[in-house]
Amino acid sequence: MIESIVSYGLAVGAVYAMIGITYNVMFSASRVFSFTSGMLGMLGGVLGALFITKFGLPVVVGLVLVLACGVPIGVITEIVTVRPVLKSLEQHLYVLSTLAFALMVQQLVAIEWGTDAQPFPRLIPIGPGWLDQQFWLPMLACAATIVGLEFLYRRTLVGRAFVAIAEDNYAARALGLPEQGLRVASFALAGIIGMLAGFTGAEMLLAFFGNQSILNFYGFIPVALGGMGSNRGAVFGGLALGLFQQAANFLLGGIFAAVAVFVVFIAILLVRPEGLAGVSTTRRV
Amino acid sequence: MSTSLRTITRRQVLAGSAVSAAALASGFPAPAIANSDPIKIGYLPALTGPSSSTGVGINRGTELAVEEINAAGGIDGRRIELIVRDTQSDPTKAVNAVAELTQRQKVAIIFGPLNSGEALAATPLIARDKVPMIHPCWVDQLIDVKKYPMAFRNAPTNQQIGGAANQYVIDVLKLKKVAVVSDTTGYGTASVDAYVPMLTAKGAEVVFSGHIDAANPDLKPDMLRMRSAGADVIMPWSVNAGFLARILNTRGAMGWEVPVVGQTTLGSGQTKALLEKPEHWNKVYSNNFRNVCFSKDGKLPARAQEFVERLRKAKLDMGDTLLWWIALGYDAPRLMAETIKAAGSSPEQITGYWNKLKAWPGVYGDITFTPELHNGFQDDQVIMCEVNSLRDGAFNLAPGYGA
């Protein structure tokens, strides 16, 4: 039981964490909560199965193509759903625009790909048991993502520019940083991370159009738990969520596991509205 | 006096009119010119959209039957004109199509809708417009002789589907400790709620029953619970291939050789595609129909065998669909043509004929209706099959049935 809770919990938690990071990367650059994060995760699985199973491409080529697809989708998201509503952020129109775009893409996938779950190929034939690739691949991808982002944000000039935009948009622009270009680049990066989450988690979650709403919900929880904009918080929140969900699955079972997750989530937010790892900010009046 | 005189006059006028109408209807001979207008049959398959695989299969049989009837001269020289409206698996589209078929096209009968979701929306409207309908949908509430006196079903009900699975588990496999599970959809929860009391009434012990979130990728916790409860058979009720495949894959990974008995999706190609190993499909038995299954000697019943040969002659593809879908689609126009030929094409004539229909020999199954019962399929025709035996669109009867 413990083995199953740890292996499945951490694996699924890593997928949630990466979707949380996808939310964060887009949020940092635009202050917009883009509900296209779950859509990117769903597409990672569907496109992976399409390229590798249907088209018969090698796994590496399939992975590269899937990640490459994340770039234009991220850019289109920024241009179509975020840029037009940036001027009126306080009206929260982005909820509608990003959700509408995500639902449109989901319907398109339902029509073209089908509404039944389809298999995702086994990429590396190790297992079964806890060594199975479906468990460690999402964890590996999550670790690579967080290390890569930390390196980007702390060690590179472009990364520091991203951080500057996230910290203070106006000040960064006053310094001459190309705010719009950096925002577009952030959405492209989020596209890659979301696709990677979906691709590496697809053997567990299958290539299924319905994964979009699940990933949108469960990917948002790590962000809320870990604090908005905090990638380390998202990883911590995602893994904790995965473990808790799987433990609830064993202890309570059935539909009560999902109820338990939401009860704990609401309880935490009632006690710490800024998230477990977030920092509460004072508002000047 | 004047009042009574007026009353008498009215009555006389009414009576006179009735007599005149009766005289017109019965006394005068019909015109000698034969009516050569085609007979319009409304047809509401889902040929596109998420639930269309059934419709596409049924449609092959329907089109073949109509072609054969028309090639043989139609109904007393009148061709059948099939007015097809694709519901696109969408109840709203089905409702719009009903209005067109009943009010503008004035069809004699409607075949369909072929999916329960669309039939639930369309049946009250077809009943309101007083057009006879026949459909193959399983939801029990779709047939109600009081609310929908002109609606008939040429397929089993959900009660019969669950009843056949329960009967197989208890009477044929002789298993008593049952785990009944479903996903959280309306179909799944309603099935568990309906079938658990049926099992208990038959003397089984339901050691585990519950609804599982189909989005949950890991079903091992629930499966472990079933095993520790002592279940010696699992009965999952879901049309979600992903959910069913996860049950079968988890059973395989646990090395638990418990039989799985349930709905037809267990034997679908979508479920098969999601299995980690082909052997995970062993000891899985799904609903099917006696008339279109291979018996122990590997032969189809004579009527189905003859039908398969006719399909081969017509070069109809069976490899990507199921024989029972094609057979069901083939039976409906033949029944309609026979009805109109024997009784006429008015709604009352059609309904009157169907209300007395007894053991009409379809390829899919024998159909019997009475004025009180418009569910035409017989209990003993619903059986279980071995899902891993699919060939040419048909399955072997599950072990334990007589030849």
Describe this structure in words.
The complex is a heterodimer of chains A (285) and B (403). Chain A is an all-alpha fold and 285 residues long. Chain A has helices at 2-30, 37-54, 59-82, 93-113, 133-155, 157-167, 169-174, 179-205, 211-226, 231-251, 256-271. In chain A, α2 packs parallel to α4, α5 packs antiparallel against α8 (179-205) and α10 (231-251) packs across α11. The mean pLDDT of chain A is 88. Chain B is an alpha/beta fold and 403 residues long. Chain B contains twelve helices and 14 strands. Chain B has helices at residues 2-27, 52-71, 91-104, 116-128, 158-172, 186-201, 220-228, 241-254, 269-273, 302-313, 323-343, 347-354, and strands at residues 39-43, 80-84, 109-111, 133-135, 151-153, 177-182, 205-211, 233-237, 260-262, 284-289, 360-361, 366-367, 382-391, 394-397. The longest helix of chain B has 26 residues, at 2-27. The radius of gyration of chain B is 25 Å and the shape is globular. In chain B, 45% of the residues are buried.
Distance between the termini of chain A: 53 Å
- Order of H and E elements of chain A: HHHHHHHHHHH
Instruction: Work out the helix count of chain B.
Output: 12
Shape of chain A: globular
Low-confidence runs of chain B (pLDDT<50, min 5 residues)? 1-8, 19-32
Task: Report mean pLDDT of chain A, rounded to a whole number.
Answer: 88
Note the main sheet of chain B. Answer: 5 strands, parallel
Query: H/E element string of chain B?
Result: HEHEHEHEEHEHEHEHEHEHHHEEEE
The two chains with the largest interface, and their residue counts, are: A-B, 27 and 23 residues
Model regions low in confidence, pLDDT < 50 over at least 5 residues of chain A: none
Distance between the termini of chain B: 82 Å
How many DSSP E strands of chain A? 0
What structural category characterises the helix and strand content of chain A?
mainly alpha
- Total of DSSP H or I helical runs spanning 4+ residues of chain A: 11
What does the largest sheet of chain A look like? Answer: none
Q: How much helix, percentage-wise, in residues of chain A?
A: over 70%
How many beta-strand runs of chain B?
A: 14
Using only C-alpha atoms, the radius of gyration of chain A works out to 18 Å
Helix proportion range of chain B: 40-55%
% residues in beta strands of chain B: 15-25%
